[in-house]
Structure formats: C-alpha cells, structure tokens
C-alpha cells in the first residue's frame, strides 16, 4: 500500500515547553549534569553539561541551556526520525502526559541529534 507523509503544525505555549524541560530533569541525570541557577528559584536547572566524569562528577563536553528553546529543538529533530517511538512521544507531548523518559529522549535529540542513551 502506498503511503503519504503529512506534516502537522501544533502551537504550544512556552510555559508547556518549560514544563517539559522541568520534567526532563528527572530523566537526564544518568548522562548529563544539570547545573542550578540560584537567580531563578522557580526554575532550578538552567544549564546542563552533556557528559560527566563518573569518578568525581566533574562536567565536560558541551554546555546547553535546558529551556523551552532546547525542548523545541529536540521535538523538531525527533519528529524527523523514522521511529514508532516518536509517534507515542508526540501524542504524549501534545496531550500533556509526556514522562521523564519521553522528555529525556527529546533532550537527547536536541543535544545529539539522535538517541544516544537508553
């Protein structure tokens, strides 16, 4: 059976994207070091390092801002992947039920352009 690709645009409030960034904090700790920003107590993590030394916890690699823009970048990159998993994540993102695993995957797509861990 022949299939066709449908591109759909969905508007999402920045607050919702920030909520996804907050949720991602619970899922990225095994591969990234989130850094606290004391000037924004309502948003405890503002940056993350992509890698850390397991022996002493010191960060290295690239540093990224963990915010709505990073989540948007991850969603856009993830949506281009040929993955059944993306369809489940997209549904969860749109209906507001994305869990830490989904948000972790979104951040990985933003940072690495693909799923690297998990």
Could you tell me the radius of gyration in angstroms?
15 Å
User: How many individual helices?
Assistant: 4
What structural class do you assign from the helix and strand content?
A: alpha+beta
* Binned strand content: 15-25%
Structure summary, number of beta strands: 3
Could you name the ranges where pLDDT drops below 50 across 5 or more consecutive residues? none
What does this structure look like?
- This protein is α+β, with helices and mostly antiparallel strands.
- The chain is built from four helices and three strands.
- A three-stranded antiparallel sheet has the order 1-2-3, with no helix packed on it.
- Helix 1 crosses helix 2, helix 1 (14-24) crosses helix 4 and helix 2 (68-79) crosses helix 4.
- It starts with 13 loop residues before the first helix and ends in a 6-residue tail after the last helix.
What's this entry about, in short?
Helix content is about 40%, strand content about 15%.
How would you summarize the topology of this molecule?
Blueprint: H1 14-24, E1 33-36, E2 45-52, E3 59-65, H2 68-79, H3 84-95, H4 100-112
Antiparallel strand pairs: 1-2, 2-3
What key phrases describe this protein's structure?
118 residues, alpha+beta, 3-stranded antiparallel sheet
């Amino acid at each position: 059976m022949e299939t066709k690709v449908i591109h759909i645009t969905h508007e999402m409030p920045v607050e919702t994207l920030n909520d996804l960034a907050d949720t991602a904090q619970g899922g990225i700790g095994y591969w990234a070091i989130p850094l606290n920003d004391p000037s924004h107590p309502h948003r405890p993590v503002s940056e993350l390092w992509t890698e850390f030394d397991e022996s002493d916890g010191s960060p290295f690699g690239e540093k990224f801002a963990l915010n709505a823009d990073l989540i948007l970048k991850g969603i856009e990159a993830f949506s281009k992947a040929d993955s059944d998993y993306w369809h489940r994540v997209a549904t969860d993102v749109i209906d507001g039920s994305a869990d830490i695993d989904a948000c972790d995957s979104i951040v990985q797509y933003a940072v690495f352009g693909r799923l690297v861990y998990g």
